[in-house]
Amino acid sequence: MLDRPGGIRSEVRDFNGDGRPDILGMMAQAREGLYLFLNQGQGRFQMETVLEVPPAWGLAGFEVVDFNKDGHLDLVVANGDNGDLALPMKNYHGVRIYLNDGKNHFTEAFFYPLHGAYKAVARDFDGDGDLDLAAIAFYPDFEQERPESFVYLENQGGMRFEAFTCAESNAGRWLVMDVGDLDGDGDDDLVLGSFVRGPTTVPVPPALRDRWRSEGAALLLLENLRR
Q: How far apart are CA 55 and CA 90, in angstroms?
């Protein structure tokens, strides 16, 4: 379907409402981008370019969700893979929301700068009826007093968000994250997975690395206390 290196994620959804499953794919090497394959039936697909960016953009993941509840599928995208071209830190790494105009033309509507952003999920974590964001960064600026390796973005409406983090997020180097109602109380919790022996293209202070190895967490459960 696309002879290009770096395919790291795909999702199957009906993007044009014709009842046939389409495919959205992310390529994260060389010419990075998001590509939509519209199902024409009988095993045929028509490719449309959603987004193309330079290699240093560091595409890392995406989620498909109707963020503004207009009936069209939007995109939440994390870009922060800094494993190849590290320093200096890149101010264009972060979490973005791309809104769908109904014709699968996507426009950036929100950007939160986050060094080394690796994954973002959209859920109504606070139960107020709109979607919030949770994001992890595998390549944050570890030399800051409190690196933003995890951030919760509470939706304030009108594409405005208030950012929060927690001290426990320094307990590891977060490579993966998933969401679910882990305690069965009706709201979404988060679990973060750490890989502290990851690439060293972004400097990690020796004291922090030693603390990870001696007392760091392989998994961190963030319980939602809304209920």
A: 12
pLDDT digits 0-9 by tens, 119-151: 999 999 999 999 999 999 999 988 887 889 999
Class of domain 56-222: mainly beta
Q: Give the C-alpha separation, 111 to 125, whole Å.
A: 19
Cβ-Cβ contacts under 8 Å for 25 (sequence gap 6 or more) = 1, 2, 7, 9, 10, 34, 35, 37
Residue 215 DSSP code:
H
pLDDT in tens, 92-103: 999 999 999 999
Domain boundaries, the chain: 1-55, 56-222
Please list, residue by residue across 91-113, b when 16 or more beta carbons sit within 10 angstroms of its beta carbon and e when fewer do. eebbbbbbbbeeebebeeebebe
- CB pairs under 8 A, 24+ apart, for 147-153? 148/114, 148/115, 149/173, 149/174, 150/174, 150/192, 150/222, 151/112, 151/114, 152/125, 153/95, 153/112
Q: Which helix (H) or strand (E) holds 220?
A: strand 219-222
pLDDT band at 86 (very low <50, low <70, confident <90, very high): low
**Under a CB-based contact definition with an 8 Å cutoff, are residues 15 and 24 in contact?**
yes
Burial class (CB in 10 A: 0-12, 13-18, 19+), 86: middle
In angstroms, rounded to a whole number, what is the distance separating the alpha carbons of residues 25 and 37?
8
pTM for the predicted model, two decimal places: 0.94
Mean pLDDT of the chain: 93
Alpha carbon distance 9, 146 (integer Å): 30
